[in-house]
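Q: For a teaching session next week I want to show students how multiple molecules come together into a single three-dimensional assembly. I've collected the sequence lines for a complex. Could you give me the predicted C-alpha cells for the whole thing so I can convert them for display?
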Amino acid sequence: MRCVGRLAEMIAASAGALSRATGRGGGTSLPGMVLNRLDPGALRRLGGGLGGGAVYISATNGKTTTARLLSACLRADGRDVTANAAGANLASGVTAALLARKRSRRATGRARRRGRGRGHGETTGCGGIGVFEVDEAALSEIAGALQPRAVVLMNLFRDQLDRYGELEAITERWSDLARSHSLGPATTLVLNADDPALAHIGADLNVVLFGIDDPAVGRRELPHAADTVRCGSCGGPLSHDLVTVGHLGHWRCDGCGLRRPEPHISARRVRLDGLDHLELTIAGMNGPGGADLEVVAGLGGLHNAYNVTAAIATAAALDVPAEAIGEGIAGVQAAFGRAEQVSLDGRTLRLLLAKNPTGANENIRCLLAEPAPLNLLVVLNDRTADGRDPSWIWDVDYEPLWDRIGSVTLAGDRCWELALRFSYGGLDPARFQVRESLPDALDSAVAATPPGGVLYALPTYTALLDLRAELVRRGATHDFWQET
Amino acid sequence: MSTPTVRLWHLYPREMNIYADRGNIAVLRGRLRRRGLDLELREGRPGEPAPGGGADLVYLGGGQDRDQLNVAADLIATKATDLHALLGGGAVGLFVCGGYQLAGHRYRTAAGATVEGLGVLDIETTAGADRLIGDIVLTSDLRPAPGRLVGYENHAGRTTLGGGAKALGRVVEGHGNNGRDRTEGAVANRTVGTYLHGPLLPKNPWLADLLLGWALEHRYGRSFDLEPLEDRLEQAAHSAAVARANRRR
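A: Of course. Below is the structure for the complete assembly, covering every listed component.
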C-alpha cells in the first residue's frame, strides 16, 4: 500500500512538471487531481504529516489575501507553513500543496544526508502548519478528508449562481459542516460577526468572532447587491446601524431580537488610504480591556480591513504573539490580481479582480478615492471559473464612476453586455470603446491613458488570467505561479 | 401636454432581485427616456397594496427560495386582488424566474409542500431533482419572424402550461419550461412569464418595446408608435449571446 502511494505521488508530481513545461498552466492543481484519483486517501495521509494541523479559509471574497496574511503571521513566528497556490482551492489544490511539501522535504533530507544541506534551518520533523484557501463549495469535502485545526468563514455574497446555487444553499452546507463530526473539539471556528449568515453558525463549537467596530467607515444604507437581509432565525427583515461591505455590518432583527454578537477581535479604528495602505487598531488581543494592537498593511480598502482582521483573529487563536502578527501583516504584498501593479508602455497598470457584485463594488469604492480622471479597462468573461451567467454586472454600482472617468475600454467574451450595462447605466456610448479582442483592448486602453498615468483594470477571474498572460507575453510581468 | 409616462409597479425589489432584475427596470426606463417619454417607479413592498391611481406595468423578479416563500404568502394576502384587477383590465405584467412561478396557480417544492401562486398565468410548477441551467435561445410568436429571444436560465422548477396560456416561445437552444416539451415561458393577454434572465430585456429590446407600447396604450387608451431606436449595442450583445449558446451545444 505504501508503495502504491509512493508511485501515485511520483506520477502526480510528473504530471505537474509536464503541465508547467508545456506551458499549459502552473501545475498548481493537476498533481493533486491525479493523486486524489489514484489514491483517494492521499489528502488525509499527506495532511497527517502536518504536526501543526490545517487551517481552512473560505469566503466568497478575500480567501487568497487572508491566507497570505495568515501565512505571513505564522512565518514571522518561525513556523513552517504549507499553503496552496492562489486559486488552486479545491481538494486537488490542497493535495498538490501537501505533495509538493513532502517532495521538497524529501529532497532536503537527501541533500542533508549527503552532507550538502547541513546548516540549513529546514527540519524534516513532523512540525508544519497548513494554511489553505478553500472554495466555498469544496469546504465540506476537504474538511471531511482532513480534520482542520481552525476554519475561518469570512463572508457569503452572491457569486456564480449558476455553479454554487443561491447563497442559502452554501450557508446550509456550512451550517451542516459546523454541526458535523468533521470539526472536532480541537477545532477553532473563526467567524465574521458582521455577516448575519455566519455569525451564529458555530453554536457549540470553540468560536472566535471578528468584526469591524469603527462607525466612521461604511455607510448607513445597504447597497443594491445586499444579500442576507433577512433574519436567519425568524425570517424578519434586518436593520443596520452600520453597513460596511455588501450586507456586512452591525445588524439586528427587530422581530426576534437576534443581533450581531460582540466580536472577540475587532477593528476599533480603520484608516483607509488608497489602494496600498491601511491602518487598523485591533481590540481584544489580550482579552477584554487588554492593550490594543496597531497594525499597518500594504493593502487598500475596507474589504482588506476585514481580511486583515480575520487573519489576526486566526493568528491569535493559533497563539502567534502580537509582535509576529504585526510584522507578518506589514510584510504582505497584494496577491496577484488584487490591486497588483504592473508597468506597461510608460503607464502603471493596476489589476483589480472583480468577479462578483460585492467585490466589484469594493474596487469601485477604492477607485473613487483615487485621483480623477480615471482610465478603466473592464473585462467580462463568462467561462466556468467566472460564472457562466453574466447577469451579475447589473447588480454592480458602476454609476458613481461616470463623473470621474477619463477613458473606458470594455472587453472580454461578453464585452457587449458591459456596453449595455454602462449605456443603460447612463454613460454615453461615445465615452467608451468596445474591443472584442483582449490584445486590442489593452492597446486601446493604454493609448487612452496619458503617459505616466494609471490604467485601472477590472477583470473577472479568467479575464485576469488572460490579461496577465498577455502582460507576460509583452514582458511586463511574470507568471503567477512563480510567486512565493 | 405633460410627458407620457408609464407607471411601473415593481414588486418586492428588495427580496426578489437575485438575477439582476434591476437591469430590466433600467431598460424599461432607458428606452422610454430615449424617446422623450418617462417611467414612474413605485416599489411594492411587503404588506403594501397597489399604489393609488393604479399601474400600467407590473414587474416581479426572481429571489432565493426562502425569500420566494415569504413573498408568496404576502403576495396572496396583500396584493392578489389588486393584481387580478390590474392585469384583467389590460395592464401589462412581466414575471421572471421565481416571479414567473409565483404568477402560476401553484408551486410544489422539493419537500412536497404546495405554495399557492397568483394564478394570473395558467401554469403549474413542480420542483425537479436538478437545476436547468445555461444559455437559452427561443423563437417567439409575439413578433414576426425571427422573433428571437436570448438569455440565461437557472431553475429547479418544471413548469407546465394549461389550456389558458400559450408559450412565450419555442426553445432553440436550452431547456425551457420543463426540459421536455420545448416550450418556454407563458403569455396570456398582456401578461408575460419567463425563465429568461441575463437580464431579459437588455439583449431583447423588441420585447421591451412591445411591453412599453402595451403599457402606454393601457394608460392613454390609444396606440403609441414607439419610434425605432439605434440599437447597435443591443444587437451586438444579442448576436454574441446566440453565438455563445450555439458554441456550447
